[in-house]
Design goal:
Elements: H1 8-14, H2 19-31, H3 43-59, H4 73-91, H5 99-105, H6 113-117, H7 122-132, E1 138-140, H8 145-151, E2 159-161, H9 171-186
Parallel strand pairs: 1-2
Helix pairs in contact: 1-9, 2-3, 2-9, 3-4
């Protein structure tokens, strides 16, 4: 079965146009892309994981050090969702006009996540874990680049210019530009999904 691609408007409503949430979502998608996991996830689950895991990595670069490889994929998602899901639910504000698309993008309705994740390619899981161990980048407007670079003694390691944003921050365009870029990023994600309930392996 297939589902549609998220639109800019849907992303705006899903994040409630909250700049903190939508920016963390963008940065997470950029640093820990999950193309191979998306067929087994609702859009809500993808968004909550990407935004929350990035924000946690930004706050504590060693957060996943020593623990990420001890957790199975379901345990990892469960940990991230302790913050990610309440964060998403706090701001999500889906209009009646977007309800049909929203339902189509969340075909699993949040059910049987543990069973679904059992079907994810183990290599994709390990790749995700490795990326979670990397330091979060710092995202800046082009006008901020030199200042941030000087803060690092002239080094630009980990500094990323948001080329989809204007050179100078413009409050009224920041969030819409994030939504447009996120919808563009998600357009490359697979649309196929399997709605059949997966079977947990026998113990």
């Amino acid at each position: 079965m297939q589902r549609p691609k998220p639109t800019k408007q849907l992303i705006l409503e899903l994040t409630g146009e909250n700049q903190g949430l939508i920016s963390a979502l963008h940065h997470g998608l950029n640093e820990t892309p999950m193309h191979d996991l998306y067929p087994y996830l609702d859009l809500d689950e993808l968004v909550a994981f990407e935004a929350s895991s990035w924000k946690s990595r930004e706050a504590n670069r060693d957060l996943f050090e020593g623990t990420v490889h001890l957790l199975d994929i379901y345990q990892l998602f469960s940990e991230v969702y302790k913050i990610g899901m309440p964060w998403l639910k706090k701001y999500s504000n889906i209009s009646k006009e977007q309800e049909k698309l929203y339902r189509e993008l969340n075909p699993f309705r949040g059910k049987d996540l543990k069973a679904r994740l059992q079907n994810v390619n183990p290599e994709a899981v390990e790749t995700l874990k490795e990326k979670l161990l990397e330091s979060a980048n710092k995202y800046v407007f082009e006008s901020q680049y030199q200042r941030e670079k000087m803060k690092q003694g002239g080094e630009n390691i980990g500094i990323r210019i948001m080329e989809f944003q204007p050179v100078y921050p413009k409050k009224e365009t920041i969030v819409p530009n994030f939504a447009k870029e996120i919808s563009k990023m998600l357009s490359s994600y697979p649309t196929d999904y399997n709605i059949n309930k997966p079977q947990l392996p026998l113990l």
